Amino acid sequence: MKSENFETIAIRTQTERSLHKEHSSPIYLTSSYKFEDAEEMRALFANEKEGNVYSRYSNPNTSEFIDKMCLLEGAEDGFATATGMAAIFTTFGAFLKSGDHLVSSRSVFGSTHQLLTNVFSNWGVTFDYADLDKPQDWEALIKPNTKMIFVETPSNPGIDIIDLEFLGDLAKKHNLLLVVDNCFATPYLQQPIKYGAHISIHSATKYIDGQGRVLGGIILGTKELIAEVVGFARHSGPALSPFNAWILSKSLETLAIRMDRHCENALKVAEYLEKHPKIKLVKYPFLPSHPQYAIAKKQMKQGGGIVTIVVDGGIEAARKFMDRLEMFSISANLADTRSIATHPATSTHSKLTEEQRNEVGIEQGSIRLSIGLEHINDILADIEQALA
């Protein structure tokens, strides 16, 4: 049975059953594979035949996870990595060489910023940052040696959004590779490839797992582009473990229902906090007050599970609020079943200068709220008492 429905694809896509006729996919904890004869070994290593050679290259569990994600994201092929940052590093490493230039959204995860400023810059790759809320400035940054446009949308933690269709047209006009970090939206809420992105990246550690258990990442795109990714990754070795791939593939079975609740809870939290006298600012894609609300409504199914706020009173007020939270976890992670509060300026984005943080809207009073799956009354009650 073939289906175009997200939930059915996520649940029913799996590896071919073994002779044991298992209902749920088993875990293939093997580092290597047996060949029928010397000729099969030769043919597999020569890429004349498809099959598993070594689990750094492929494994039935990672293959199942990739197959599901390709169907859900609208991609032709993919490569699964050990972490989300491994996915970003592998993508940059596969396509950027000394002398190339990159245009990136200024609002990127702290470790992505570190890769651009302290790693790839040492290898002769230059970059310019552009603001998500100033699309008119992007084209002027493109140079003859520009190779790639990289963007997070929604961004972390500012929840800024850019029109993916605009970026797709811009990339096509200048023959550039458009890479989108789709982590916050997940394929359930947004499919960048549909709008012209060539590659979509996820930190599967976040909503795809959704329960704070394992690390993982994935790179999705055309067969031609993923072949270049695989060529780099097979030798640099950022492969996802079979166990983690099994967890992530099983987690996809509940992604839709989890995201529905994350989004429902997050919108209610955002609406509540927008009216609170101690909150200076609330950013959430599906609030009409969000600067890119119309774009979010166009390209996202719902607003996601992250709400970013600025507490009136700066860092001391932010610390007081976080320390008074009783149910929320204080953690640097996000996208868990459990609600989490993070202070980006002193954690995930602490390596940025204060000027750089201000440029992407991270104030001393900024707090990123990852809204979980607890009952909404309990979530709101904890926030209310912490702000009292």
Helix/strand layout:
Elements: H1 6-12, H2 38-45, H3 60-73, E1 77-81, H4 84-95, E2 101-105, H5 110-119, E3 126-130, E4 146-152, H6 164-173, E5 177-181, H7 186-189, E6 199-203, E7 217-221, H8 223-236, H9 242-251, H10 255-274, E8 279-283, H11 293-299, E9 306-311, H12 314-324, E10 329-330, E11 340-342, H13 354-359, E12 366-370, H14 376-387
Parallel strand pairs: 2-3, 2-4, 4-5, 5-6, 10-11
Antiparallel strand pairs: 1-7, 6-7, 8-9, 9-12, 11-12
Report on this model:
This protein has 388 residues and is of the alpha/beta class. Helices cover 37% and strands 15% of the residues. The protein is built from 14 helices and 12 strands. The strands form 2 sheets. Strands 1-7-6-5-4-2-3 form a 7-stranded mixed beta sheet, sandwiched between helices. Helix 3 (60-73) runs parallel beside helix 9, helix 4 (84-95) crosses helix 8 (223-236) and helix 12 (314-324) crosses helix 14. The chain is globular, with a radius of gyration of 21 Å. It starts with 5 loop residues before the first helix and ends with a helix. 47% of the residues are buried.
List keywords for this structure.
five-stranded mixed β-sheet; seven-stranded mixed β-sheet; 37% helix; 15% strand; pyridoxal phosphate; 388 residues; PyrdxlP-dep_Trfase_small; alpha/beta; O-succ-hSer_sulfhydrylase
